[in-house]
Amino acid sequence: MSSYPHLLAPLRVGSVTLPHRVIMGSMHTGLEETPGGEHELARFYVERVRGGAGLIVTGGISPNPEGAAREDGAHLSQEDQLPPHRTVTDAVHAEGGLIALQLMHSGRYAMHADAVAPSPLRAPINRVTPRELGTEEVERTVEDFAHAAALAQRAGYDGVEIMGSEGYLINEFLVAHTNHRTDRYGGSDAARRRFAVEIVRRVREATGPDFLVMYRLSALDLVPDAQEFEQVLALGREVEQAGASIINTGIGWHEARIPTIATSVPPAGFTWVSRALRENLSVLVAAVNRMNTPEIGEAVIARGDADLVCMARPFLADPAFVEKARRERPAEINTCIACNQACLDHTFSGQRMSCLVNPRAMREDELVLGPTRTAERIAVVGAGPAGMAFAEAAAVRGHRVTVFEEQDEIGGQFQLARRIPGKADYGHTIRYFRTRLAELGVTVRTGHTATTEDLADADRVVLATGVTPRIPGIAGEDGPTVLGYKDVLEGAPVGRRVAVIGGGGIGFDVAHFLTHDPNADFYREWGVDRTLEAPGGLLRPEPTAPLRSVTVLQRSAGKPGARLGTTTGWIHRAELRMADVDFVTGVEYLRIDERGVHVLVPDPGLVEENAGVSAPAQHHGARAGHDDAARGAATAVDTAPGKAELLVPADTVVLCAGQESRAELAEQLTGERPVHVIGGAHVASELDAKRAIREAVELAASLP
């Protein structure tokens, strides 16, 4: 009997039978605008179909040029654009898959001069102010959607998904916050719904009864002055009557202040919204967001939260997600960890999408792990992300691999990362590699520090020895109140007042680790209304009191966390803001003693005014009831023109001042055999698992 009887059950949708309840959701890959990119895109989708994907939804394609995300963005509006699409659909159908084209008009999110919207209101995440559509232009846009759907049908697509969520054009018409119109497309609930409903109705008329028409409905806008849930339900009923086959649940606009898909969101964190839709509609409903294992998908469907689950990034991480679940081998799934680093961060910066844990994603032809011509004995020193990834890829190619790891467990820095609140999914990557290395016959020697004698018989040596924390050289850093970040994350006792030295990614993680209450409620902290009574699902955030008082010190005068991820940095900054974490930037370290950290800071007047925060300062005052006495007042003493000495009181000081490569073994290895240094051992300026894993797989692919 299957472990996933609900998830893997076939489902009839109109004239089409889906092989299971998992939809591969839309992801804009970056190939949609690339000349000739349809061939690579086809191979990307084909690998997923071979891995069990049933219904695939493409990246967003606009129904007209002004709706494209960028000036040269993808759109489908004329017959001569069909051949590249036919390349994709023919390839998917040849493998037995189904594919739907997502029709997405960017509206005020479009980053070009021809951007249009219901009203001329600039989005806070865009520099472009859109032009307001005239009434006739709105009606023409409805026809553009219908025409594009008909073209998609002629191109061989099995259906379309109409993007009515995430703050794009259709969603903008639905919300009074962005729709100030007084014509037939604004001014009342029914008028604001008219644009969406007419699009669905015209698409159905243009494509006939057997074509799949999915509508992505914004069930929870998470922006001010948004739809109430009764309005959402009214739209759902009208969309159903207009001919939708499936309603796919959308959560939050891109400009929302609440995370919806990042690793900090609880698993299946919004399926209670799709359940509320499903209980009030007759049409099939799909759930989305933060579902990354077959166990989660099974539970969502079994408890009635949805008829289907829509997973996008899990298919980036592992093309064979469904097939491995079908074969009862879930431990072999390379699980999406919701880091956003190579998928959404790439998309929003105009790069080709890929995946941190699977760098072959979108490079299936370029990064090939074919059989080796000469099987070698390869020794890998270090079982962090780079070492694990190389060992797996080299073993897949047929090399005989032995891994030496000085710690008792594999995982390296991921063993620390998984301890950070919201990053438990990093443990999935360790589980995946542990399973795969055993399956591939890789010898793994943990608790063993490799010596030159251990490596003597290897034909090739790969050093993935990682990093060691950098010692900043501050007077008193060896004192009894000072700890390294590794000590803290592994459970060393920490005092009530903490100074964190270093404002990079590790400093942010440690500050979050030290302040976050594990019993905190995500929805209450961020202000999400689970009763569905508040418009847009938006409430006032009620952060839990932080466990400690933390000040983060940073040498540079720049913005704290400036190098954090494009799509997740704002979340990490908000988490520390809610925890009343203070930042002192532009510091020069003087000494550490039993009272705390003594630093020099610029602009003493500002320092005195803000009680311990230097320019460009961020100061988040303590909430009512917070123990100001425990925090202590940072004091500034004039020392020189333009400088002041500042004491940051601290019971514990945590060093997060960067890393240094550990590659000393390379100097001891002599002879003609190749020695490769990868990952943090190669470059340690920033801990970068994306680069480390990609570098490891590229090396394995390049071997003879």
TrEMBL record:
Residues in the signal sequence: none
Name of this protein: NADPH-dependent 2,4-dienoyl-CoA reductase
InterPro entries cross-referenced by the UniProt entry: Aldolase_TIM, FAD/NAD-bd_sf, FAD/NAD-binding_dom, NADH:flavin_oxidoreductase, OxRdtase_FMN_N
Protein's UniProt keywords contain S-adenosyl-L-methionine: no
Keywords: Flavoprotein, FMN, Iron, Iron-sulfur, Metal-binding, Oxidoreductase
Cofactor: FMN; [4Fe-4S] cluster
Residue ranges annotated for the NADH:flavin oxidoreductase/NADH oxidase N-terminal domain, each copy included: 7-331
Stored Gene3D superfamilies: Aldolase class I, FAD/NAD(P)-binding domain, NAD(P)-binding Rossmann-like Domain
Ranges for region Disordered: 58-81
Highest taxon of source: Bacteria
Bias (Basic and acidic residues) ranges: 68-78
A single MF term (Gene Ontology): oxidoreductase activity
Family named by the database record: In the N-terminal section; belongs to the NADH:flavin oxidoreductase/NADH oxidase family.
Annotated ranges, domain FAD/NAD(P)-binding: 377-669
Any Pfam family hit: Oxidored_FMN
